[in-house]
Amino acid sequence: xxxxxxxxxxxxxxxxxxxxxxxxxxxxxxxxxxxxxxxxxxxxxxxxxxxxxxxxxxxxxxxxxxxxxxxxxxxxxxxxxxxxxxxxxxxxxxxxxxxxxxxxxxxxxxxxxxxxxxxxxxxxxxxxxxxxxxxxxxxxxxxxxxxxxxxxxxxxxxx
Length: 159
What we know:
Shape: globular
Oligomer: single chain
Number of strands: 4
Low-confidence stretches: none
Largest sheet: 4 strands, parallel
């Protein structure tokens, strides 16, 4: 049975599609791609149906990641049932997800991306939308680190 991961940010055009792409790369490098289903969503529908932010795509492509997912809003009635791990990018996303959860079982699936960081001490993945290039690069640095930690956690957790 596949392990199912959902990455969540606000609009699903910068951080969560990047989390999806980076984690896809991490599991592929580990030879575990067939064991995972990976998706992303936003807590709001403002960008539903749109591709990832062009700036985020450009920075990700420079590192070899393809952000090809299309933005969608979290669907609590489906997503909490379907996914095993729901990973929020910041405190606001985390709190929004907690409010959407229907029971303790669903709440237990929710964590923050930075919970899996190994090198960085950030408590959230900052939204790069209104900043410059350095913000997009920081998102990728944090995600590369935390996605490695997330894979280690899941593999330990599911043994």
